[in-house]
């Protein structure tokens, strides 16, 4: 009998942030804002611990947030019982972000039997201006 995925909710996705990800990723303080089938938006709070010189959000935090959001976007489409791993994460930093939270929106572009492709946009939560774009490939295990 096929497994039916458990219902997805903002709370179930937030719970996965605690259950699936390393403590340092949890330490980023991301919050699930919304989701749809194959899409998730997280808020990455502004933090001095994530800032580099001049108060700019560091690229490492943005890449981690992008990767994390994409895993959750895959869950909204395929369910929470699919183990997966990142194969590729290609990131372009468009402009610095400082003085505001980041909004991280991940979308599944195509989900096949063994690979999932996605795109992530990171924008200022206040001004809505894109600061980072990423494309990803995940292997379903």
* The top level CATH class name: Alpha Beta
Order of helices and strands: HHEEHEEEE
Helix count from the secondary structure assignment: 3
User: The biggest beta sheet, please?
Assistant: 6 strands, antiparallel
Give a description of the structure.
The protein has 141 residues and is an alpha+beta fold. It has one domain: Thiol Ester Dehydrase, Chain A. It is 25% helix and 38% strand. The protein contains 3 helices and 6 strands; from the N terminus they run ααββαββββ. A 6-stranded antiparallel sheet has the order 1-2-4-5-6-3. A hairpin with a 5-residue loop joins strand 5 and strand 6. The longest helix has 20 residues. The mean pLDDT is 94.
Main attributes of the structure:
141 residues, alpha+beta, Thiol Ester Dehydrase, Chain A, six-stranded antiparallel β-sheet
SSE map:
Elements: H1 10-20, H2 23-26, E1 31-36, E2 39-44, H3 59-78, E3 84-93, E4 102-111, E5 115-124, E6 130-140
Compact description:
This protein has 141 residues and is an alpha+beta fold. The chain has 3 helices and 6 strands, in the order ααββαββββ.
């Amino acid at each position: 009998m096929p497994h039916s995925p458990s219902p997805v909710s903002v709370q179930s996705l937030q719970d996965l942030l605690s259950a699936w990800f390393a403590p340092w990723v949890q330490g980023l303080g991301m919050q699930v804002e919304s989701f749809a089938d194959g899409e998730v938006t997280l808020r990455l709070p502004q933090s001095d611990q994530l800032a580099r010189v001049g108060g700019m959000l560091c690229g490492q935090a943005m890449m981690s947030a992008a990767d994390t959001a994409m895993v959750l976007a895959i869950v909204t489409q395929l369910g929470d019982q699919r183990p997966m791993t990142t194969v590729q994460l290609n990131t372009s930093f468009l402009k610095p972000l400082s003085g505001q939270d980041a909004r991280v929106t991940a979308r599944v572009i195509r989900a096949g039997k063994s690979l999932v492709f996605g795109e992530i946009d990171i924008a200022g939560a206040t001004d809505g201006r894109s600061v980072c774009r990423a494309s990803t490939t995940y292997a379903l295990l």
